[in-house]
Amino acid sequence: MKHFPFKSIEGSVTAATGFKAAGVFCDIKRLGTGKGSNKGQKRDLALIVSDRPATVAGDFTTNQICAAPVKICVSRTKRGLARAVVVNSGNANACTGRQGMRDAEAMAKITASALASAGVDSITAQDVMVASTGRIGVTLPMANVRKGIGLAARQLQASIESAKHATEAIMTSDTRPKEIAVEFQMGGRTVRLGGICKGAGMIQPGMSPTGARPALRSLHATMLCFLTTDAAIDAKTLQTALNEAVAKSFNRITVDGDMSTNDTVLILANGMAENEPPALKSKEFEIFQAALDHVTLQLAKKIVLDGEGVSRFITVRVKGGKTGAEADAAARAVANSALVKASWCGGDPNWGRIICALGYSSAAVKEAAVDVGYSLPGSREIVYALKRGRPGSATFKALCRITTAKEFDLHIDLRQGKAQALMYAADLTEAYVDFNKGDVNDPSTLAG
Amino acid sequence: MKHFPFKSIEGSVTAATGFKAAGVFCDIKRLGTGKGSNKGQKRDLALIVSDRPATVAGDFTTNQICAAPVKICVSRTKRGLARAVVVNSGNANACTGRQGMRDAEAMAKITASALASAGVDSITAQDVMVASTGRIGVTLPMANVRKGIGLAARQLQASIESAKHATEAIMTSDTRPKEIAVEFQMGGRTVRLGGICKGAGMIQPGMSPTGARPALRSLHATMLCFLTTDAAIDAKTLQTALNEAVAKSFNRITVDGDMSTNDTVLILANGMAENEPPALKSKEFEIFQAALDHVTLQLAKKIVLDGEGVSRFITVRVKGGKTGAEADAAARAVANSALVKASWCGGDPNWGRIICALGYSSAAVKEAAVDVGYSLPGSREIVYALKRGRPGSATFKALCRITTAKEFDLHIDLRQGKAQALMYAADLTEAYVDFNKGDVNDPSTLAG
Q1: In terms of DSSP H, where are the helices of B337-443?
Q2: Residue A204 has what pLDDT?
Q3: In angstroms, rounded to a whole number, what is the distance separating the alpha carbons of residues A102 and A112?
Q4: Has residue A124 got a pLDDT over 60?
């Protein structure tokens, strides 16, 4: 990849010109969820608004059981225009039937009218995207939601602090907010792009623009990501760029192999940088793509690092697959094997469980052809545990020096072809089990 | 299923007429494995021998990475005749290259000559089946193996106690021996059938007679099972019966969704009951099948109950699948979801994670059609948490009364067709992670 000059800047969804945000507390978490249950007054409703109508693109869970807000976003994304995003945490509004659809529609309507009251001109419910995360199967406490939207509409600001409030408001079991912003030149104009996301559990996204299942299947967990940019870019081109970015970032992560009902990535582009909208494959488009790739990849990695109970971050790099689908299947089999993930928790460099997982994947694998090696992030030196199916010459200690690090890369060569695949994965820890088993005597700790 | 009159009897692989067994200590575990590492002097080599040549059938892992002893068994099973089985624990002899094949062949040869010395007439290496379980990627300590085989050959007995020694010798992380025997009438003769098995981790078998991948894919963990009977039954009929029994038992269990390199089920039938060999589909064959089904199912359930860290046993019953493959995919998605399994650990009756897993499975699922219910084993009363996609009327307490039990059944109706599938599954506990993460400062605790 060519190096494109973009620089990191402070902030997130309000970094781009013409975007405001707010994050407020309206007591949805306590009413709706165990995860991230609200002992104090944690913010649980976020609003992101553009001063001008923006083009919009989105990618959504391919789970057949998908939440009401996802259904609404899928249909509104096709329209290609949006003005605002309203998000609640603490309640997923998933498996809530017709009431859930009515509630999601109402969230958009209430937001449009609250924004109109707050002075946003000519906004309708159709301009409002909706997202939810939290407990499954419980209808939204709409009185609280209504109160929260009203509060948020009055608190909207373009400040870094208000974006931080929005970031906090979308968190569930996340332990820290996840945000990023960059600035770059595009067609002689300064463009900004920023975003926020949340993750933690039920994480192995496999999104597509329509929620329709792609040929290459994958799993997920609830992750939400909201991106804003002041670039001028038409909705179709924006969707192309987003698909490409998501394919290389959020669709390559796994915490626990479970694909959520609510995974959502949205990007709003309001054109206030006043650049010439880039044509597909133009140099300007490539710059935008590179910036978007960077932003989504950094956010995706933050989700894995902050996954439930995660103590180690492993980049699984498979090469030599017969086909892309096979390389992907091999990488996912390793990244989701309970035994491999438990061994990562212990920092174990042994390769037996890895080759075992490769062997039961749907990828063609030949024992005598497989390499398994390790490297520290950024280092070019791969230390091999297995070379062509036989133990490598590296000492146990040399291997452990890498695999007991907080982050390392696992290199697998199948030598069956030329296809590659990559997954960003996490270990499986006792803390993950402890968090997710809950306590039946305190239903607020349970999963919904 | 009709009720066939077979009765439980004491013992296992020596219950049938004409079978002897032994289990000895030859220090393979300490040299080869972390799992079940040998602090005391745990038996680690087993021998099972028939007084007369027996017909043999087998089912083996479909993992592409398969151990040397599995390769040997696959080829010998085709021949249809066997006399003895030699098994070691502590070392899987998997991913050991050509040396591994030489060692597995040597195990058979050494066994044949030790048995010849011990008075077994006209036995060759071709008559000896070989199995291994334990650490992957380390070659066998052949001096120890040779010593162990010599010892075992001298200690062979038809007693219940010697069969117990064999059962102990095949254990790795198992906490208790798993054995069973039954007696039944077949063509006017009294026939006996018994067996032993081991499991614990890397458990989701998907075996086939040749190790070739069946159309219906599945995963696994190392499980070994050795069955003996004095029934007279030809090898082809025996293989048919075994395939059927394995499909309904070992291929329906999962502890952690990992399919092992070594999964092996073998049955030897020596004809000493002197019954008329049953023809396929005859009444006599059905009696034999029912007895074999019972024996393999009981052994398979014991593997799940004694799985690493397992605290709860769940029977996942899916009906209403569009096809058998879809019903199976739905059952496996639920049975292997990290989030569902963690919630089982806590005794959580919530259905959100269950419907989420169904939604990302390859089965067609419609939210408004799905039922999720629970029952205690043996009870006909299903208490529904979800009915046609909406929460059922049962109280949380009523659901918990079932899901906090040590064993319960999970009933899922997809209402998309008439196909059914069933999985015997386990919860995911902190103890599983603790056991499998090992300790890099004590390599004997690691996975290989």
Answers
A1: 338-345, 352-360, 396-403, 430-437
A2: 63
A3: 15
A4: yes
Which residues of chain A make contact with B358, given a CB cutoff of 8 A?
Answer: 64-65
pTM exceeds 0.80: yes
What is the arithmetic mean of pLDDT over A275-299? 96
Residue A55, φ and ψ in degrees, nearest 5:
-75, 155
Asked which of A134-138, A399-403, B37-41 is least confident by mean pLDDT, the reply is B37-41
The one catalytic residue among A17, A222, A296, A403: A222
Examine the residue annotation and report whether A55 is marked as an active-site residue of this protein. no
**Cβ within 8 Å, pair A365-B261:** no
In this prediction, residue A254 carries a pLDDT of 86
What residues of chain A lie within 8 A of the CB of B203, using their CB? none
The nearest alpha carbon in chain B to A400 belongs to: B440
Q: Do A350 and B258 touch (CB under 8 A)?
A: no
Q: Which of B348, B339, B326, B261 is nearest to A336 (CA)?
A: B339
Average pLDDT over residues A133-142: 91
Q: Do A359 and B261 touch (CB under 8 A)?
A: yes
Judged by CB atoms closer than 8 Å, whether chains meet at B348 and A446 is answered as: yes
Residue in chain B nearest A351 by alpha carbon: B448
CA distance B220 to chain A (A): 8
Domain ranges of chain A: 6-305, 313-428
- In which band, very low, low, confident or very high, does the pLDDT at A1 lie, cut at 50, 70 and 90? very low
Is B368 in Cβ contact with A65 (below 8 Å)?
Answer: no
**The pLDDT value given to residue B5:** 80
Instruction: Please report the pLDDT score of residue A42 as a whole number.
Output: 87
B356 and A217 within 8 Å at the Cβ level: the answer is no
Which positions in chain B touch A339 (Cβ < 8 Å)? 201-202, 256, 258, 436, 447
Which among B220, B346, B355 has the least Cβ separation from residue A437? Answer: B346
**At A221, is the pLDDT very low, low, confident or very high (cuts 50, 70, 90)?**
very low
> What is the ipTM score, two decimals?
0.86
Closest CA to B276 of B228, B237, B227: B237
Q: Is the Cβ pair A367, B95 closer than 8 Å?
A: yes
Mutate: best of A395, A433, A441, A446, partner B, most B CBs <10 A? A433
Query: B398 contacts in A (CB within 8 Å)?
Result: none
When scoring A173, A220, A440 by the number of chain B Cβ atoms within 10 A, the one with the most, hence best to mutate, is: A440
The dotted CATH code for A313-428 is 3.10.20.340
Of B93, B62, B282, the residue nearest B186 (C-alpha): B282
CATH superfamily for A6-305 is L-amino peptidase D-ALA esterase/amidase (3.60.70.12)
pLDDT, chain A, mean: 90
Task: Provide block-wise average pLDDT over 10 residues at a time, chain B (448 residues).
Answer: 78 97 89 46 94 96 92 94 96 93 98 95 95 91 97 97 96 89 95 93 66 40 89 97 95 85 95 97 96 96 89 96 96 93 91 92 94 95 94 91 96 97 94 84 68
Classify residue A119 as exposed, middle or buried by CB count within 10 Å of its CB (0-12, 13-18, 19+). exposed
Domain B6-305 identical in fold to domain B313-428: no
B374: β partners: B383, B410
C-alpha dist (Å) from residue B184 to B2, B3, B54, B290, B436: 15, 12, 19, 10, 41
CA distance B9 to chain A (A): 37
Place of tokens 């990627």: B137
pLDDT at A295: 97
A442 versus A243: which is more confidently predicted? A243
Task: Please spell the DSSP secondary structure of B131-197, one letter per residue.
Answer: EEEEESS----HHHHHHHHHHHHHH-BSSHHHHHHHHHHT-SS-SS-EEEEEEEEETTEEEEEEEEE
To the nearest whole angstrom, how far is the Cα of A338 from the nearest Cα of chain B? 6
Please name the residue that has the structure tokens 């932003």: A295
